[in-house]
What we know:
Blueprint: H1 2-85, H2 99-111, H3 144-148
Amino acid sequence: MYTTTWLGIVIIVAACSFFVGSWMTKRRFKQGELEEQAQQAQNDLERYRQDVADHLDNTNKLIAKLKENYEQLVNHVQQSDHLLTAKQDVDLSQPFFSKETTEQLHASLNQRPERQPTRSVHDSQPTDYASGESGLFTGEQKSNDKQLA
């Protein structure tokens, strides 16, 4: 009986050791998974920071280009303004139209009939009104009873 007791104690200790070992192993594997997840999260965070840094760098480059283009535009507008507002020597000996064209314009102006004095705006009807009765207002009366039948 003494041996059976020792054999029982050995079996109970072995079973307890097995369960404690498996529990510690599972805990250790979970710890490994957590460490792996933490490392992956750290890598994702680092990649995100790099993406943000690249984006900000690209934005700074684009803003620098925009600033340069804006400065070029301002210089161009100032030069154009200077060219347009600068007093240029106008050579009056060079007419806008040729001599023949100017003569034809003067001749056509002389051939135009004189304009009739126009009546004041308040004395006349607007030109879109018809004189007299027209359309629905010709004076004929229609009965609504005939239309309903």
